[in-house]
Design a protein that fits this description.
- It contains twelve helices and two strands; from the N terminus they run ααααααααββαααα.
- It is mostly helical.
- Helix 2 crosses helix 3 and helix 7 crosses helix 8.
Length: 263
Amino acid sequence: MDVHSYHAPDDAAATAVAITAALRILCAADIPAAARTARWLTDRVAASGRALYPAGVVSVGGTLSPVLEAALRCSRKSQIMPLYRLRHRTAVHSTRPPANHDARAGMLPTALWPEWTLRPAPATPIAGPPAAQRTDELLAVACLLASNITSIQAATRLTGTTVTTVTTVTTVTTVTTVTSHNVSTLLAELTRRSDCADVLHALILLADHLDHHGAPIGYARRRALFTNQARFIDPAAGAIYSAAYARTTAPMPRTPSAGSSTP
């Protein structure tokens, strides 16, 4: 027991109850089981009027082991927004406070790879046409948000999400296809649907893999090279290149027709 904690019980009976509850948590088979056992405790603390978030749940007592800290974070999983489940990694056993992982954006394509999009994407449209059409981009943003402190707006900018420009006679309007609302709606749908129960887990594992092993392609460099130019070859220069190519290309041999006397 942490003798310096002001939460210490006042009498022997309360002490016995506290020790029994603590032993049930410590004797749990794994972190999810410990989180379920500790949920009543963190729920009571929250019901007392204290704001209890994953970032602050570990401050209710003294020094905690990483395993017990993970259990306490996971005990609040059902009470927090899906975005914070992703940030605090409550879908995996290795929960920890979020940190700056913006460098991961350089290892992610703007749209998640087709094979990765096909498996975790919901089976039906979930947030209207924009989100349904760009689920691959939404998942790429979600992967960047795993364990990360960056905002959704910054994540969409770092991954280079789709921007559609609408031009009228008098104005040019830029519409961002992927928005914070789309990302939040996707994450909420993923946590609500039973057929998407492991998607957050998979996104966190993918983020960990990229953080540790990187990617064979520098996607940030690719975006810088290929997405900031309206065209890569000037039409006049293109005509010169085409004419030069035509002069250096050997003509195809003629094939004699059936009635020709030419051998």
